[in-house]
Amino acid sequence: MTSTDVHTAYSYDDLPRLMSLMTGDEKHGPAATSTLDVVWVLYDRVLRVSAGSVDAPERDRFLLSKGHGPMAYYAVLAAKGFFPASLLAGFGAYDSPLGHHPDRMLVPGVEISSGSLGHGLPLAVGSALGLRARGLSGAAVWVLIGDAELDEGSNHEAIAYAGAVGLERLHAVVVDNASASHGRPGGIAARFEAAGWSTATVDGRDQQALYEAYTAPHPGRPHVVVARVEAKV
Fold first, then answer.
1. What is the value of pTM for the model shown?
2. How far is 70 from 127, CA to CA, in rounded Å?
């Protein structure tokens, strides 16, 4: 680690260069790039968490359920100083902490080890319930889901439960790149609405629209933002 690794300030415009440092096979490029704006706006303008508060009880939690494409996530964490950007070039290497799926024991700021589809939202529900039980009403839980993950039944159990118990500190972002096998009558947002969630559907590349959707009030209900991006090819 060098002093420039720690103190260099990065902007959104630096993210493509940071992502380009991560090379090799099995990097799931489209899965990663589809989340770039979604993750950046969260860490740059919404989440109350920083490199210095990764263990603070009142911090906001971000869970990457779509863990099979973590390159954008790693780039944003490096840009925000959670770990040195010099680590990015070792992505996927035997001795690198930056694996093809993020590991919460190895990467500062990572809340869950993920990559198995359908696990992130149930874990986010449990996190929100735990925070509520501890009286930590200021901490928000955010989870990023891929649209194809909605093919997993575990997510629908979590959607139904979260709406029924009014987990208003729970927020989901579904990145929709048209890769799901099964359609939803009325679209993705309608599935959440039927379970009592507050919803918004926006252009996943429009950062101001994302910010406004993220910060929309939703008293007494969990909130989901469906971020539509270009179709996966």
1. 0.92
2. 21
Q: Mean pLDDT of successive 10-residue segments in the chain (233 residues)? A: 54 94 72 91 97 96 92 96 96 93 95 89 97 96 94 94 98 90 80 97 98 98 96 74
Indicate whether 7 belongs to any domain. yes
Taking a C-beta distance cutoff of 8 angstroms, is the pair 177, 231 a contact?
A: yes
CATH number of the domain that residue 102 is part of = 3.40.50.970
Identify the DSSP state of 215: T
Give the pLDDT score at 128: 98
Return left, alpha or beta for 30; rule: phi > 0 is left, psi -120 to 50 is alpha, else beta.
alpha
Say if 138 falls within a structural domain. Answer: yes
Q: Which domain holds residue 9?
A: 3-228
Length of the chain: 233
Residue 110 maps to a domain: yes
CA 22 to CA 89: how far, in whole Å? 5
Q: Is residue 71 part of a domain?
A: yes
Domain count across the chain: 1
Please, are residues 15 and 40 in contact by the beta-carbon 8 Å criterion?
yes
Helix (H) or strand (E) holding 223, with range, is strand 223-228
Residue 1: per-residue pLDDT:
34
